[in-house]
Design brief:
The complex is a heterodimer of chains A (207) and B (777). Chain A is of the alpha+beta class and 207 residues long. Chain A has a single domain, classed as outer membrane lipoprotein receptor (LolB), chain A. Chain A has six helices and eleven strands. In chain A, strands 6-5-4-3-2-1-11-10-9-8-7 form an eleven-stranded antiparallel beta sheet, with helices on both faces. In chain A, helix 3 packs antiparallel against helix 4. The longest helix of chain A is centred in the middle third of the chain and has 15 residues. In chain B, 63% of the residues lie in helices and 9% in strands. Classes of the chains: A alpha+beta (207), B alpha+beta (777).
Chain lengths: 207, 777
């Protein structure tokens, strides 16, 4: 924060184009890092958005955890290239990430972002940054055509060294919005509209 | 017409001769197809296992698989190379399935998609009612929010219970390697692939072609230079073994040809004579090939290899002519004087080979045609053509001082009459007591695959879970459906064997296609449209799915209720069709199913499963079946050889018009053959087909030695010429076959050692037993 403060003091925000690599480096977290999340998913298959709440965990490079608490219980762990999904009392399902290369790229990107590893992220995505240190947006476009067939872009909105909102735009028009940190606990209407979430991410304020 | 000038006659004759040979060669090249499929060289199969082995297994799933490993580069490069190679081979007609682990579980072949409710085992334990559907749809909601949602979304509307995935899981290789970057990798970091060739495993030429195409496709890949390609599998071995055998045979051939030429140059001191002496054998070989082209149109590679070996006898003809020329006599007169004996040798050999014609094995019949045509033509060329083109100047062999000394020494060698009997008796005793099995029935032992390649094969096979190439389970039934039904019944027993550790994995034909009965059972459990719609509405009441989203699902279930069950013929058109076709086919008025096994640790457990099936399932041991074929084949050869020996004895008796003289010729031949066997058996060598062919060649050479030594001669000079000719023949044969005996390849060693030993024994015993005792002056 001190660095950010001094950086913004030295150069006026509007004159300083944000450099993606520096921005990403500032996002790095020491593992383990945890945050609550709220995920809103808009899909052409659904007649209302799907809202799930739980906790995200970053446990170091290549290791992620996602626990859904409501509306159902699900525990997903990714470690050593293997995904384990445990739902309720059912036997855990395991699959190798490498069987689904596009998913692997996606999750690798996610991990690299949380690890602040710009170089690793650069391998899988082209990066673009906009906004100012207080309200920035990072746009990740997949390089791998296989991933690009499923995911057209990932947009990350944040403030300072904290990402607040991950928006995954899928190729078929579906959108998943993951709200973390202070946005995770924001109260949402039962059927939020995409524009409301857009505002929330942009402004970092509750609708 | 003007007569041709004298000085032009010889060159013209040589030119005409060469022209005829060139014409023969052109005819043979155009007509003769050389086959390498081992099956055409084998006798007709007798037992069911042999039939299966020859008719189907060469084409079978295990023997046509090439195991491919790519190593020596970072994982992403290796994965890209694996994908590139798979893409390049996918369009090549020489290859069937190419699998490298890159497999989209959500993509079922469109032709099979409507059948998914009949193919998937789901309906065996569940019904498409509100409870089951509710449970499934709830999970789909959760899937949508999970990382896997991206993948599953396209399936959801038509396949909410994910039958597509259930089928993909069922059809995935039973024991697949780990995937990295989307393709298979071994534990030691090599990208792994399985490539199925169209050529049968028994067909080294077809396999060689496929391997060359694979390597060409590999080298065309942009990053191929940065990594290494490793191949393994039965096809690769057969191609590689035949290549190394040929390379070593070529090397030995060049060395022995040079030695042979030097020897002849030393013996006859004339380069033109030497070059011309090659013409009769060349004529014989081309005549043999021409005869095969004319009679059969095709010949097996082994026929040609054995044929050229047996034709080695013909090299003696020009040598005899060159050695027996005498001062003051033209070559034609020498040939005329030599002819009765030479003709006896040729005719008796040719008559002996007639026995091969009666063997009933095409490969052996072709061998007889080739050898008889070759020997007769080489003999006639030696008699009628060679003398007319030989240079008139030559050195009489009888004048050589060394030969005179050798002859004098031979005269002094004691020849005790009891010695042959003692040798024969001792030989029989040794044969009786010899160590090791008499016959070598495992042909693979003669063309061994280097140990490190076998180890690599075992490792890759283990990692890929590729089927065992030795054991198979054979299922029989009156029709395809009964075989599939049997296969279904056995599936749990197979799973129990895998659990008990008797084997690593087992792949049944019913894994791909359920029997019609089971398909109908599943079909009967599909609800009608109204029932399904009610159940679906009930199941998705509290779920966020869009209204009418599952309309495609309802339609597909309705369609599946009306479908005629999937038959093997219909299944054959799908991408997995080739796989099933290799495991399920009609044969012998019934249907046969093959279950492939991987990692067999306990063959006895398999036998137990087969015994319990009351004859409907058998364990097929491919090694045992191929060995029984070799045994059957050897029996035919032994019968043919026995017949040949009898014919030979009769011919020699008739030609010499004296049983006593015939005994002098045949006794040393027989004893020498016995002694070769004694030495090889005493050394613990087991005999193979190659030993038998080599023994036959040696006996042919021995016949010459005995015939010429036995011949009454007018004077000492002629006796010296006979010795000179025989020495040249013996030394050249020892040179050529002695070099082969030193080879590292067991098949060349078998031939070389047998012929070299045989030549030595035939020579010594001919001197000992064939030559008439002459009064000392």
């Amino acid at each position: 924060m001190a660095w950010l403060a001094s950086a913004s003091a030295a150069t006026p925000p509007e004159a300083a184009p944000l450099e993606p690599a520096r921005l990403i480096a500032s996002l790095g977290r020491d593992a383990p890092a945890r945050t609550a999340f709220t995920e809103v998913r808009f899909s052409g298959l659904l007649d209302r958005p799907l809202i799930a709440r739980g906790e995200l965990e970053y446990l170091g490079p290549g290791q992620l955890g996602k626990r859904v608490d409501t509306p159902y219980r699900e525990d997903t762990r990714i470690a050593g290239g293997e995904v384990t999904v445990q739902r309720g009392k059912r036997a855990p399902r395991r699959f190798s990430l490498s069987q689904i290369p596009e998913l692997e790229g996606f999750l690798r990107g996610f991990g690299a972002l949380l690890g602040g590893d710009a170089a690793a992220l650069e391998k899988d995505f082209t990066l673009a940054a906009s906004g100012n240190p207080a309200h920035w947006r990072l746009e990740l476009t997949p390089r791998d055509p296989r991933l690009a067939r499923r995911v057209s872009a990932i947009e990350v909105d944040g403030s300072g060294d904290t990402p607040l909102c991950f928006r995954t735009r899928e190729a078929d028009g579906d959108v998943g919005v993951l709200l973390v940190e202070r946005l995770a606990t924001v109260k949402l209407p039962p059927r939020p509209a995409p524009a409301q979430l857009e505002n929330l991410c942009r402004g970092g304020k509750a609708p | 017409m003007r007569p041709i000038p004298e000085r032009l006659r010889v060159p013209l004759l040589i030119a005409a001769w060469l022209a005829v040979l060139a014409g023969l060669a052109a005819f043979a090249l155009a007509r003769l197809q050389v086959t390498t499929d081992l099956r055409s060289f084998m006798p007709a199969p007798q037992t069911a296992d042999q039939k299966l082995l020859l008719e189907q297994i060469g084409e079978g799933p295990g023997s046509r698989l090439l195991l491919v490993a790519i190593e020596g580069a970072p994982v992403p490069t290796l994965a890209a190379l694996s994908r590139g190679l798979a893409a390049a081979l996918a369009d090549d007609p020489r290859f069937g399935q190419v699998i490298n682990g890159a497999f989209d579980a959500t993509q079922l072949d469109p032709a099979l998609l409507p059948y998914r409710y009949l193919l998937s085992p789901t309906l065996d334990s569940h019904r498409l009612d509100a409870t089951w559907l509710g449970e499934q749809l709830e999970q789909r909601v959760e899937d949508l929010a999970s990382p896997a949602g991206v993948m599953l979304k396209p399936l959801l509307a038509s396949d909410p219970t994910l039958e597509t995935l259930a089928i993909a899981e069922r059809w995935a290789p039973p024991k697949a390697p780990q995937t990295r970057d989307g393709v298979w990798f071994s534990a030691s970091g090599e990208a792994l692939m399985l490539v199925e060739t169209r050529a049968a495993g028994f067909d080294p030429a077809g396999q060689g072609e496929a391997i060359a195409a694979l390597e060409a496709a590999w080298h065309a890949l942009p990053e191929a230079a940065s990594a290494r390609l490793l191949l393994s599998g039965p096809g690769y071995f057969s191609a590689r073994v035949s290549a190394t055998t040929r390379a070593e045979a070529d090397r030995i051939g060049i060395a022995s040809t040079i030695g042979f030429l030097l020897l002849l140059l030393f013996a006859y001191r004339s380069l033109p004579a030497l070059l011309l002496a090659a013409l009769p054998v060349a004529s014989g070989a081309l005549a043999g090939i021409g005869a095969l082209a004319g009679f059969y149109g095709s010949a097996h590679g082994i026929t040609l290899a054995f044929g050229f070996t047996l034709l080695g006898v013909a090299q003696e003809y020009p040598i005899r002519l060159l050695s027996h020329r005498r001062a003051g006599e033209d070559a034609l007169a020498s040939a005329r004087a030599l002819w009765p004996l030479l003709a006896t040798a040729i005719v008796s050999a040719a008559i002996a080979y007639l026995a091969f014609l009666a063997s009933g094995v095409t490969g052996l019949q072709q061998l007889a045609v080739f050898t008889i045509a070759g020997l007769v033509v080489a003999g006639l060329a030696t008699r009628y053509l060679l003398p007319r083109v030989l240079p008139p100047r030559f050195a009489d062999a009888a004048d050589r001082r060394g030969i005179a000394r050798a002859q004098a020494w031979l005269e002094r060698v004691p020849r005790p009459p009891w010695l042959p009997w003692l040798l024969a008796l001792a030989g029989v005793l040794v044969l009786w007591q010899a160590p090791g099995p008499l016959w070598q029935d495992d042909l693979a032992a003669l063309t061994p695959v280097p140990r490190e390649l076998l180890l690599r094969d075992a490792r890759l096979r283990g990692e890929l879970g590729a089927p065992d190439v030795r054991y198979l389970l054979v299922l029989r039934g009156p029709d395809a459906n009964s075989v599939l039904a049997l296969s279904q019944i056995l599936e749990p027993e197979g799973a129990a064997l895998v659990r008990s550790g008797a084997l690593d994995a087992i792949e049944w034909p019913s894994r791909y296609l359920p029997s019609i009965g089971l398909q109908r059972e599943r079909q009967a459990k599909l609800p009608d449209r109204t029932t399904l719609e009610v159940a679906l509405a009930d199941a998705s009441r509290d779920l966020p799915f869009r209204q009418g989203l599952f309309e495609p699902f309802v339609n597909d279930v309705e369609a599946a209720r009306q479908l005629p069950p999937l038959t093997p013929e219909a299944f054959a058109r799908s991408p997995f069709g080739a796989r099933l076709a290799a495991m399920l086919f009609s044969a012998d008025g019934g249907w046969t199913g093959l279950a492939t096994l991987s990692g067999v640790h306990d063959a006895a457990a398999l036998s137990k499963l087969a015994e319990a099936s009351q004859g409907r399932v058998r364990v097929l041991d491919l090694k045992a079946a191929s060995e029984s074929l070799v045994v059957a084949y050897r029996e035919r050869i032994l019968q043919a050889l026995g017949g040949a020996l009898l014919l030979l004895a009769i011919t020699v008796v008739v030609a010499l018009r004296s049983p006593r003289r015939a005994w002098h010729v045949l006794a040393p031949m027989t004893l020498a053959t016995l002694l070769v066997l004694v030495v090889e058996r005493a050394a613990g060598i087991s005999l193979s087909l190659f030993h038998l062919v080599a023994l036959t060649l040696a006996a042919g050479l021995g016949l010459h030695y005995a015939l010429f030594f036995e011949r009454p001669v007018a004077d000492d000079a002629e006796a010296r010429r006979t010795l000179h000719a025989t020495l040249v023949c013996v030394v050249s044969a020892l040179l050529v076959f002695g070099l082969q005996a030193l080879s590292s390849l067991p098949v060349l060693r078998a031939i070389g050692l047998t012929v070299a030993l045989g030549v030595g024994f035939h020579f010594c015993l001919s001197i000992l037993m064939a030559r008439p005792r002459r009064e000392r002056p």
